[in-house]
Sequence to fold (1494 residues):
Amino acid sequence: MEDLIRVLTPLPVLLPLLGAAGALLVGRHPRTQRVLSIVVLSGVLAVSVALLVLADDQGATSVSVGGWPVPLGIVLVVDRLSALMLVVANTVTLGVLVFAVGQGMADGEETDTPLSIFHPTYLVLVAGVSNAFLAGDLFNLYVGFEVLLAASYVLLTLGGTAGRIRAGITYVVVSLMSSLVFLAAIALVYAATGTVNMAQLAVRLGELPAGTQLLLQSMLLVAFGIKAAVFPLSAWLPDSYPTAPAPVTAVFAGLLTKVGVYAIIRTNTLLFPDGALDDVLLWAALATMVIGILGAVAQTDIKRMLSFTLVSHIGYMVFGIALGTTAGLAGAVFYVVHHIAIQTTLFLATGLVERRGGTTNTEKLGGLAKASPLLAILFFVPAMNLAGIPPLSGFIGKLGLIEAGVALGGAGPYVLVGGAVLTSLLTLVAVARVWGRAFWRPRAVDTAEEDLEAIRPAAGTSATTAQLQENRLPRLMVAATAGFVVVTLALTVFGGVLYGVADRAAVDLVDRTPYLESVFGLQVIR
Amino acid sequence: MGLLLLAHLVAAVLAPVLVRWWGRSAYYALALVPAAGFGWLLAQLSTVLDGGTVDERTTWIPALDLDVTLRLDVLALSVAALVTGVGALVFVYCARYFEPGDEGLGRFAGVLMAFAGSMLGLVVADDMLLLYVFWELTTVFSFLLIGGSGAKVAGRRAAQQALVVTTAGGLAMLVGLVMVGQASGSYLLSEVVANPGSGPQVTVGILLVLAGAVTKSAMVPFHFWLPAAMEAPTPTSAYLHAAAMVKAGIYLVARLAPGFADTPGWRPVLIGLGLATMLLGGYRALRQYDLKLLLAFGTVSQLGFLMVLLGTGSREAAAAGVAMLLAHGLFKSTLFLCVGVVDHACGTRDLREISGLGRRLPVLAVTAGLAAASMAGLPPLLGFVGKEAAFTAFLDGGLESRTWALLTLLGLVLGSVLTVAYTARFLWGAFGSGGAVRRCAAGEPKPAHLHRPGPAFLAAPVLLAALGLLAGPFSSLLEPLVAPYADTLPLVAEEAEELKLWHGLQPALLLSLVTVLGGLALFTGRDAVARLQRRIAVDASADEGYWHTMRGLDRVAQTSTRSTQRGSLPTYLGVILTVLVLLPGSVLVLHAPWPDAVRPWDTPVQALVGVVVLGSAALAVRIRQRLSAVLVVGVTGYGVGVLFALQGAPDLALTQFLVETLTLVTFVLVLRKLPKDISERHRAKERTARGVIALAVGALMAGVGVVALGARTATPVSVDFPEQAYSFGGGENIVNVTLVDIRAWDTLLEISLLVVVATGVASLVFIRQRTGAVARATGDTRSARGRRAPRDRWLAASATLSPQRRSVILEVVTRVLFHTIVVLSVYLLFSGHNVPGGGFAGGLVAGLALVLRYLAGGRYELGEAAPVDPGKLLGSGLLLAGTTGIAGLLLGVDALQTTILERTVPVLGDVKLVTSLFFDMGVYLIVVGLVLDVLRSLGAQIDADDEHDEDPDPAEGQALATTAGGDR
Fold:
């Protein structure tokens, strides 16, 4: 078993990197590239699942890469949390890749879009994300972040249209700023403790004066707060995500902010377990939830609306973290899993809406429910899930957080519970409006039909307009989106199993010893 | 029960398919599902009536106490029977209500079936959280049913309104349920009600739960959504908005009353709101012209009635409440179904346009008449029995306080008077011979084209009405259904009255008489009432209040978003830095332990360099010329390099210098395309604010640095590096061993980052294709100027440059240096493990050599110097580095673990080869690839675009505009 974990653990990073190398080398053969990417990511997913099974069975384990003894070299740590994140993240990356391939094939990618850019970059992104989850070393975590951010810069500006470049500048500069803060914080942490190994930091940071600890924690929190889009560090997100191509936005929205949330969870539980900043986090969570969702209510564009709900719901996770209890962390972990899946699904569904309706502006859209009942289902189910309608997974996560908040009691948690509920209601208002406008309301002038006439003047003879419109959605894209909807439903049906894992992960996080022992063995190193 | 629920789910999914196959008749088949439920309930009757329960339990999410715990007791059975029974009949009715070609039949069937299942689940759920699950599901399906196809704006608005209002209450209820559940240590209704617990958490929790109940059951002031929901097709109204969903709140109150009726606030809220709702609903019903709306307001009124009865929390009131609940379910769904028939027959539901239907459709008239009589509380119908019981309850007891009991009774009697009045209005309007206004001209008698309903269409309402009629005289048979639940509540009156039709000449009968006479009087004086209604329009404000709130929400949303989402990068950065100053800054000021002594520098030279760096940073802000600004920024970088050197880190210094140089070159390449000066458009105030933030951040970082360094007591891990690097890593150059071995994992990721960055630069410049052929000067390629490069000359392609761009000195220097530099770079690569150098530095040096070739010879020369696809270089480098990573795994050691091979090779002598060299070669390749990519895109491609600008040639078309955009 030991051996198996030793071999498996580095693979979620190594396989995509090798895949990226391969994709660059076969740049002139799109089909080979596609097959390669899908095979690689399937492999990564399989490895992740195996790691989760092993981690849930045996608890945390660590692997030193390069064979160096512990505080010298870099360790990768697989515990329940990181393994769970790996599985979810790589499910999403694989699914989105399939969607993107579907979109590419439908668009005749071979000639138009820079295939040789997308695949290698996407695979490197996956490596970065996986590494961020596995890193047992603060600097290595930073490197993971940098890799995924660099890849995201490229993906966000794919195609180089003016809008994307403008959004890209905001995104890149803000991300660089957060990286700068993070890097400075790492330097300070090293200055104060002489190590960047997280397990060793867990011991050494505790020996520092409380004020110094607080200082370092707050620096790291600001850095991760930007990445996770916690208000007031969140304004960059709705200005940058919506312009990217649908699959890119989907994977960004689903994954990238959650890596920041993961980092907050990790540092707050492992490195700074005293909860000294929990109150700050609590109010930040409230502001993130409420101001984020107000932003969503004010939008008329689906992608922008979803981006604001993304910010808003980060508040839920921060809420769970700020509670600091096992129940709160379990709720946060479950919500992270749920939210990764649901945001990705919704953005993909919105990609289909854009394809069908030609826009994502609800003021121009209309009649989609009638034109494409399948698309309507693919949007409605995850939209309700996002709004936390039971029994869907969004409800389960919300319930976990409410239960945790009520269990802790006190003014702060109760206010937060109220804020969470209000946010849930406003999310429903926002998605119900989109539904009403884009799906229910008949289209004033059926421009889609006119487009169709223009494209296929002779097609009207055999197929009805509705059928024709159905044809316009490429099958692979629809299948990928439908697959995601099924995944979100599975999160609901198997919510008990998943919540069990989240719960055990939270117990480990609060306990800390499983993590420390996995790195040091039984003796604790100073 | 679980199976039944599952059956509903399966049927809901299959419904659209069935409808596609069998058309509207599929509804008959679908009716079997709720009918089966009804049958199953009947089969459980004996168990339940004996005081037993039917329990089922499947775990779902044990961590949250959310399990599928189902429990059928007598109250659940009564309501479930109503839900399934009416449900089955509504499906039967649908099969004829819809026309064969109607659109959306399948969707409607599926949603209605899903609703039926959720409603059944709500009633049999024992886990409070599970009850909430079904509760919200009924809300969502109601939303879909009200909105229908979404074609009508009123339907969409009503659907959204109902959704928002009931969900708002539902969410309050969810929090309440959690509070109650945690306070009482169980989430099972049966256990919670048995051990209710007390204290503020329970009180607040219960009041929140009631918020859910009153919104769901359309109590004042949340009643407005229910009449608006009448946009839905009539079967929906009959089922959801009369018999089933709106009863959910009442049902929950009935469920909780045995445990919580004494909770502070319970009775005032429920009885107060109930009475207000009963009166207001009745009053509003009196002015309706649309038959459906009339019934809707009647429903609101009756729900208020039920809320009073079941919220009172005494045995006698509860018994009356359950009887009334059943009665209302029967008569109200009948009436709705009849209105549906009328609508079909006449094409309208406006009572001003209908007349004389009674004569033409006698069966329908009798059916509706029976149901209406039950609604008005006329003997011998079930409605009469319920109302008598209610009056008796409050006459003899009901509440501990007589005063409040009698006041409540007064309210109920008044409400019943209104009920009789609107019942009369309904019958008169639908079936009477004289419509009030007759706006519709006599020459357009709709009944002439009467669409006569068939027996199948009428079956459901007739059956329901007949049940209401039968249940009256035989109401004592209902007693075993009512009593077990009612007995869980305390008896306030002296003795419990049984349900029966004839109690003798009692005060209650007198009250019934009063209500009937009063109601008829109101009906007779309807013109006066209408005048009064016009003058006092109660209530219209509630609906307006909702829309007002929504508009307010929009305003708040827009204001808040406008102020936080400025769309301005400098603002965002300012906010981020301000947070940085405020959060760690305040910690620094308030809590930080400052070290006792601070050593500012090791040698004064460091201070000097520091001053230079600071000065050039400040200068960079002031300089307007882009190029100069970039150069000054470069000085800060070189300064840092000097600091590294002073610290005794030649490797770092070397790398820093190389990177800085390359960065400058890149900048210069890009700056060619930008305006010379940086435009200054910021006002003085903004500049000041930025200056303050910048200085504060700088001060913060310095302060934090002092504190963090002063806190160090532990030994840094790096003290072991020198020894370990040699013994384990096989190298004397610690930096290089760190990069390619100790922390090779970091390096592997960093080089993949380089790959991505190179790819990204290419992506922005070569919008369309990356893998294009390398532009070379030899062969067939001709320069834009038509000069052709001679094949045999070194640096031949410089001939393709225009003369004014050529520099003889540079060409000469390049000729001398290029190969030397390349050799040097290879030397750095191989020697790096022991002396300063390494793959990264080597790669950078090689890159600089390429820069030189490009600058001297132009873009074709670049193609000559490196006739390879940079993508291939990057790919091979990554493959090489990655393979050394995975090789370790394959060989049974850790990933990236190195091996030292020492051999004596004939010519070279003793050679010590550390496998990390292969890794370093990967690094080298990638760095070269990166530089090449940057030169090709930012250099050569922009050259090509420029030449293209000067000498337009459509055949070489590139996305020039987008490229320019890319550089902005």
